[in-house]
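Cont'd.
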Amino acid sequence: MKLVYPFIVGIVSSSIVGVDPADSALYEPLIENGKKVWKCLSDPSIVLDYEQINNNYCDCPDGSDEPGTNACAKNRKQFYCANVGHFPGYIEHFKLNDGVCDYDVCCDGSDEWLFKDGKQCPNKCLEINNQYRKYKEGAIKQLENSLAIKKKLESESLNMRKELQEGSQIIAQEIEAEEIRLSGLRQRLEDHGDNVDGDDEENEDSVEEGGALLYNVLEPVISKLSTAIDHDRNEYKKVHQLEDILLKLINNYNPNFNDAAVKEAVRTYQDYISNKADENVDETLNSQALLQEVVFHTRTFVEPSQQESKDTVEETSASYGAPTFSNMVHYYFELLISKFLNAPEAEEEGKFYKREEQAPLKKSSSIAYTSLSQEIEILEQEIQDSKKHFSSIEKDLSLDYGPSDILRAVRGQWVSNKLGEYNYNFGFFDTIYQDGNGNNVHIGTFSTIEDGHVLVYNRGARCWNGPQRSAKVKLVCGEEPKLLSVSEPEKCEYHFELQTPIVCQELTEEELIKNFKVDYTQL
Amino acid sequence: MQFTVFFLLFLHSVWGVKDYLYKSCDNSGFCYRNRHFANQIKSKDDYESRYSLDIDTLSVSAGQLSAIIVKELPNNLPAVELPLSITILDGGSIHVKIDEKRDKKSFSGKIVNFNRYDEASKWAFQSKTLSSSNSSAVIEAKSENGDAFYEYSFSDYSFKFELDPFKIIVARQNEIQLIVNDQNLLNIEHFRAKSENKNHLTPEESDFDSFSDSFADAKDDTIPIGPESIALDFTFNNYKYVYGIPEHADSLVLKDTTSSDRPYRLYNVDIFEYETDSRMPMYGAIPFLLASRPGSSLGLFWVNSADTFIDIDKTSDVGSTKTHWISENGILEFIIMVGSTANEINKKYGEITGYTQLPQLASLGYHQCRWNYNDEKDVLSINSLMDEHRIPYDYLWLDIEYTDSKKYFTWNKDTFPNPERMLKELDHTDRNLVIIIDPHLKTDYFISNEAINKKLTINTFENKPYYGHCWPGESVWIDTLNPSSQQFWDKQFEYSKRNEFMGRLSTNLQIWNDMNEPSDFNGPETSSPRDSLHYDLWEHRSIHNVYGLSYHEATYHAMIKRLETTKRQRPFVLTRSYFAGSQRTAAMWTGDNMSKWEYLKISLPMIITSGISGMPFAGADVGGFFGNPSKELLTRWYQTGIWYPFFRAHAHIDSRRREPWVPGEPYTSIIRESIQLRYSLLPVFYTAFYHSSIEGTPVIKPVFYESPEHLENYDVEDQFFIGNSGVMVKPVTEENAASIEVLIPDSELYYSFDNGNALPNATTVSGPTSVTKSVDLHTIPVFLKGGSIIATKSRHRRSSKLMFHDPFTLTIALDKNGNAKGKLYVDDGESFDFENSGEYLDIEFELSNDSRSITSRVISSPNNLAKELVDVVFEKIVILSDGYLQDYESASVEQNNEKKAISVTTEGKLITLANSKISIISDWVIKFGEEDIVEDIKFDQVNEENGLHDEL
């Protein structure tokens, strides 16, 4: 074993070790005072003996005098290995002359030219090139498959787009026709309305006894309701108690014991409580007070139509309808239910009146009148639906589905597989959720596409003591759709890599070389 | 809304150690009883000790005194005989043992070993017999005012042994340094039957929890022998500062504990989410205390492996420190060491317990760990990402998840289908893998079955295998106190094809021993029941604190056998639990810390304390184990962690990924530069370890060791030196720091060396003075003390081993007289050839202003190593002069009788000898201002002519 630092051999007659032949002109010696000299490339004021190139000591601030050693902390360019018989490679200087044969970059072993007299790493370009060719064959075959799938998806996408465009045209035409029909019907209703005016007597008759009767009718219901509410409140208290118990558990358990069941319970409870905390529980709500209110209102109930002029009733009923006995009860009932069961619609304004639109307006309305207005209503609804449909198609058409609209073809496709501890389910343009032991955690809902190959999902379930979950899904080329990796660089912000043929591209030789990994065991 | 508020309130009260899981003095029977005893005695002015030395039994021979100490009992009971021996050790240390004569008959019918446990020393001491070649040590009989006493003199010290009551008084030049049993707190609870207990109690004693344990999780303790505690007090006269007795998450200087029910406690436990500023027990225990002040130091080694409390009293006599040591059982054994400096005490302590192993060089590199790297692909991807991000590292770690169902000595075949291939790939760039092997063995698989069949497990008080719970669920524990366990353990680590688990794996595989307190999830205080039985029927309570050591030693010895025929001979074993002596075979880390600033801060006094206590190979989890550090905290932690002797980043399984590239810029670059700085300083660290391994110098050394003459330096715990290199560091551990206070500890010159960048202008003050230094996120405040010479390697490589042939840079920082000295230690970094055949390079540098020269002298004589190092040079010499060196316009170097000119460039007070290319393997001298050099001889030619290119 011979260990030499041959300081002078860094300059081999015509070329300088580590310099790309394209740059060889930069390393020509200059003759000054009969001596071969050379000047640092980015600072010509520093003049060196020509022998100082590659003498394993850093003289130039830009590192240009040491293209073949690791002497300089900074380097102009990476070390060039000729790799005759394969493809030239460029390697970082810190990998030079450290005794490691970095054949994946320098199959000729030239990166170790100074180590053990350059004998550390024999030239393996022949073997490696063979490996590479085999690899390339396989890779290209795989890529061709992927590209074929991609092509199919592309044409599907284009067809889908075309169909959508056609569909939207048809709908637009339909809407036009329906609107014409609607205006005709409205005209008829107006004409008819003049005739039925003044037909309200029956209506007046139907409301006789007022509040007292209403209360009598409702009293058993209200009392049952009161009992039911009490019962629910007790149940809710128990939920609170259980939440307290679990909160103590998650605050005090020993995560170091890493009991899978405990951890799972803790994690899901954290999710539960974190997302529950978002809901606004209105503390001013008091069910007993509300019941009192119901009792009060039913006792003092006065038929609105008794007080109001017929004109106003008419006006109201045309657009909204007046509060009647039955819908009044219905309203309070709804309110109670919604408040106590926490249905989100509870907050919506005008619930009472909206519901009226679906209820029969007036018992006294003539059949013709009713059917006409019903027809109008139906038609209005249809037009509204069509418009909605139309705008959703238009919106969809304007969305970014990547080049050639390719992502359109995978819309609705789901990919599920396990990464580490959890199984992840990914829906293109849908949602991502993670499941483990039957508990699903919503990671996010599709929001936008970034740079044509990153799908952004957000507004997922809130994290314990943190933000709502979100994810960025980077699409990478591969034949089978598959989630490759997941990481969480920021709290509850996930980064996925998803393999799919839709982002596959033809590969250049350089890319193939970059992706190729030398099998050292075969050398 | 109401609900939200309520639940946030809860959030803020979370995290904190579960105090109630661990005994305080008040609910620990033996501690309570001894504190009670102490209070009773202190409150009586006329107390007469029951312990006296029976002069009729006394015999003195060279270096040895033996006698019976008699303990008088009440109620006319016969006195208890307590055999005493005092041995004079080399260096004037004294070794004291007090045992109890017990009647074997009274133990009939009991399974348990009836002796007091006397084998803590067997585990702690380096060799069975302590070196007392000083057999000429004379112990003289004397008397004073009619009282007989014995005295031994060593140098200017005198040790006076008083008989009634028994006391030892250590004085130096007639000034009292230490009094043993000063307060008459000597107490040895002798054996008595439960039925006779009342009769045996003296009025000063309490019988609290003498035969039962009222502590919640310990009620099942059968306490078969009853009360058998030992206690003694030591007064350190005129010593304000005492140190040591790790492991505690506490200040460097030990605090007064007299008003707390939690004195310093040594009981190895898997403490969950430990708190800072706490005297609670932790994973390791070293019952060694250092007292130090300008001019004098003392060491006390309490050789006991049972549960121990130490009360520190700094208030009853301000300026002095009184200590009260209380152990649950065992013999009473201690060693006193004297010396002028703290380092002398470390040297003497190391002669007894052994010095730190000289670790593999690679283990001083960066360790990347997390619970867990999921699979082979994950491991290899981390490996290549390190290169992509230009981050050097040497070790990648696998926590418990690599196993099949937490069964040690198995691989999870789904996630690690081919460990052989994985290790080979890591080996390609000389990286290593550490896997965890814990002492709990899951029941019902081949390893635990064999351990049970061979009767190698820890047993119950009925001497049947003890079943507890740990990671794998139900488990048994290997009893490594049993000598037969070694053979069983060796087999599992064997480097041979018949070893399915690791027999074929390459030698870049090392071991992590965790949970060896031992941690038992359903045992009292999360550990083994105290009445469990070990080899020789010793109770667990007697051996508790050495169990961890016995376990990691078994691993070390198994690894020694595995590796002995290979090139990488030095095992690297990391242990969580440890005892005095663990430094011989393992590194430690401070366990499960948290991602919070206070844990970053406390890591420094904890690691410095470990070094003071003879266990310098120590570190804390960079980034904090539990939780997620902010980017700033992570960055500051790296900037601090690069100075830990053991430098490892680790994270809990539930924390997010935080490898150096995760935080992004500017953090990633700052972290990269920090780690690269550590690598460039590896020669400095390795040299410091070498000195630690031969003389006990802490690797990160307290400021008062370097400048012992100023009392102001004695409580500095956030600033330190790297060995004797002169490199002084004050890491930034404050959030949003814009400036920090640095203590310049003496009047020497201190050159700025921030982030490893040397500046030639020095700071100088007249005595210990704080200076304010502005810092930003990049700043790692470092100084180089005037008078030092350090050797570094500045070129980035992928791992430490790949730096082997890279050249050194010498940085010379001149002192006020224009002189400097330094050292460099080099060897192959992995074999035992340095020990077995002198294959190491020990170099001394000196710059002398008088002779205007720099000399390098090799004071060792390596053979093969010199051939390996033939191409390694000092490529550059940088002199920080602060104006003290004159006439340096030209210089020449002479080596192997060849002389050549060296170019000298100066920029202000910075002098650079560029491209010097001086071989490191032989002596050389550089002379300044010599003009008579004609020829510029190429150095490789010089080497050629000297025959250094011979075939190996």
